[in-house]
Write a structure and sequence with these properties.
Strand content: under 5%
Number of helices: 20
Number of domains: 4
Helix content: 55-70%
Protein name: HAT C-terminal dimerisation domain-containing protein
Number of strands: 0
GO cellular component, one term: nucleus
Shape: elongated
GO molecular function: protein dimerization activity; zinc ion binding
Organism: Fusarium oxysporum f. sp. conglutinans
Radius of gyration: 28 Å
Keywords: Metal-binding, Nucleus, Zinc, Zinc-finger
């Protein structure tokens, strides 16, 4: 879910309803998992607009009556505001758009919008590619309305820095919105983005424009990073990835963070593990007339009872597979870790972002046509699940 407050309210109401109607204990904080794409969106907007609460964006990107007040307010934002003003200025007029196309060899400018931070990245990427055309427009057709938005060499350098940083966020988002990105990627992605913010804070500590941007973005991301402590699922997803286990956390996190994470993990495992977890038994002949063989088989059976989770953590890390979820669904893991594998499948089935579930929901309109408008909700649910499962090629065959 995204980070809107009404989702917190919904989780609390769900918890209360389950308790009252079914006597089920459901912790709303533990089960509150946040869409990583929305977190990156909030951090990116905090980076772009610092902590300013002014709503300068117009609700309709195509509106033409931009007031002088809007222009001046954006101009105060520095290079970002200037390039925004210039793009709006060009797109407000058919004549100006045609003049720009003649100087840009028919390449159009891209416009930012109020809903997607990536639109700012796209606007900067296109503008930087069309820098000569933009500078040429100011030199050839300087007009009073945009005279204060002419971009200096220093402004272009700042825009390049901003674009380069946003590009890292864009790549991270792209990786997490795929059909196969699961919860084990969330904390790794947050660590990566936080590292980029921290590197920027250090590199531009005395920069009057860039320093506040990096500080603001870092503070927003750090806020949501701390909220991941409320659910053990994030840590569990990393630990249950057979290539990571505890290695990533022990190598990259502070000791006290790792210790508290281990306690969270043990609490979650307690919900899955049985009273005793015997070692998987070796296959032996069921009957034999040879007394020696009977004696040998009896003494070869493991009598030691061990914890599945401990055995998993103490075993070597595993590489060379395409999906952690697919690895846990293999028959070998199902036999060796019958209870831990259930926990792993529950955790690693959770997507890192809501992008893939939203795509699935949107695709339901293809299922519910005018001729099939009487399908029950249970049938539609089953059809959409099957459609999703058959699309996951990595899991076809053994699982389906």
């Amino acid at each position: 879910m995204d980070n809107a407050g009404n989702n917190d309210t919904m989780m609390r109401s769900l918890s209360l309803g389950l308790l009252r109607r079914y006597d089920i204990q459901y912790d709303p904080k533990v089960h509150r998992l946040r869409c990583q794409g929305h977190i990156i969106n909030l951090a990116a907007k905090a980076f772009l607009f610092v902590t300013d609460n002014e709503k300068l964006e117009l609700d309709d990107p195509g509106v033409h009556n931009v007031t002088l007040k809007h222009i001046e307010a954006w101009r105060k934002k520095g290079p970002l505001g200037k390039i925004h003003n210039f793009v709006v200025f060009i797109q407000r007029s058919v004549q100006r758009s045609q003049k720009f196309l003649t100087i840009s060899h028919n390449r159009k400018l891209a416009r930012d919008n109020d809903t997607r931070w990536s639109s700012w990245y796209n606007m900067l990427r296109v503008a930087l590619n069309l820098r000569d055309a933009i500078d040429g427009y100011f030199n050839k057709w300087m007009e009073l309305d945009c005279a204060g938005d002419e971009l200096s060499s220093e402004d272009w350098i700042i825009l390049e820095k901003i674009k380069s940083f946003l590009e890292k966020l864009k790549m991270t988002t792209k990786a997490l919105e795929s059909s196969f990105a699961t919860l084990d990627n969330v904390l790794l992605a947050m660590d990566f983005v936080l590292a980029q913010f921290e590197a920027g804070k250090e590199a531009y500590i005395d920069d009057p424009i860039m320093a506040p941007m990096y500080n603001s973005g870092w503070a927003k991301l750090d806020k949501y990073y701390r909220l991941t402590d409320e659910s053990p699922a994030y840590v569990a997803a990393i630990v249950l990835h057979p290539s990571h286990k505890w290695h990533y956390i022990q190598e990259n996190w502070k000791k006290e963070w790792a210790e508290s994470s281990k306690k969270l993990m043990e609490t979650l495992w307690n919900d899955y593990k049985p009273v005793e977890s015997p070692l998987p038994l070796c296959e032996v002949p069921s009957t034999t007339t040879n007394e020696f063989l009977n004696w040998r088989n009896k003494h070869l059976q493991p009598s030691l009872v061990t914890d599945e989770y401990e055995r998993y953590c103490n075993s070597e890390r595993v590489y060379g597979f395409t999906s952690a979820l697919a690895w846990w669904l293999e028959e070998t893991q199902q036999k060796n870790y019958p209870n831990l594998s259930k926990m792993a499948v529950d955790i690693l089935s959770i997507p890192a972002m809501s992008a893939e579930p939203e795509r699935l929901f949107s695709g339901a309109k293809i299922t519910i046509t005018d001729r099939r408008n009487r399908l029950g909700s249970d049938v539609v649910e089953a059809l959409e699940c099957l459609k999703s499962w058959f699309g996951i090629r990595e899991l076809q065959g053994d699982v389906l």
